């Protein structure tokens, strides 16, 4: 890989500025193109980031000066676009999920396995200070065996969130609701910390937004891991605010709790602050990202380019990205099985 890397962003929606601003902070990386099927959006973003605008991804496929493409498009476009880009030799960093459906994810996994180009999935919360510290403690075994985990996501997504972007809230385009869009990060962390999943049982329901969406706004699950650990998970988009994600890990010799993005160790009746998130500011002195879902896009994107340069495999690859989609698919299946069973019971 040459020293100077050219990049493009496909999709000029709400998440794209985090990618563009992160690219701007990297040495030796130049954002060449913003692509969006809305010409006005593409032009506006291109003007802001001093690059070219295009209305079709095909424009960049033959561009030798563009080696990396960021996908910030609706869920149902991720897999097909990524497959086309990998076949053209482009490295791809896609927003989560890697696909809107497990079948599409499996097709992308096959393509990525035979492509010399990199495919990365934006599970940026793995780069949070608390997540890294938890992973370090698990790997070192300093608290003994992991016994149980808990993940809670209580956020607010009202009708306007869905009506402003019609692809959201639909099975065909979003692929699900709170599970695949918001809480997927917490599910990813639970399986990353817990290890290989043996089973997941739970339910998904539409408790508050049934007149707006056809997917779930609330879900809960009980997860068993092959190492004997168990996890409880709860997520909803029907709260009144966006609360920080809560995580708890119970070990033989202590408890780790993530509260307000800070990690605490509770041991022998005492509580110790292990780490807190760094404050990242933009050019105007404002905090970048959103504290309730993490501010680590910059770290993830920088690491992706480091792996592109070195030719080593990015750690959050297709094989990692598909694990959480399998969890979600199994949870939907469990929910449907429970509903079917309940319908058979006499009233």
UniProtKB/TrEMBL annotation:
Start and end residues of each Gfo/Idh/MocA-like oxidoreductase N-terminal domain: 7-121
Domain of life the protein comes from: Bacteria
InterPro entries reported for this sequence: Gfo/Idh/MocA-like_OxRdtase_N (IPR000683), Gfo/Idh/MocA_Oxidoreductase (IPR052515), GFO_IDH_MocA-like_dom (IPR055170), NAD(P)-bd_dom_sf (IPR036291)
Molecular-function GO term, any one: nucleotide binding
All residue ranges annotated as the GFO/IDH/MocA-like oxidoreductase domain in the record: 132-256
Gene3D superfamilies in alphabetical order: Dihydrodipicolinate Reductase, domain 2, NAD(P)-binding Rossmann-like Domain
Protein name in UniProt: Putative dehydrogenase
Source species of the chain: Fontibacillus phaseoli
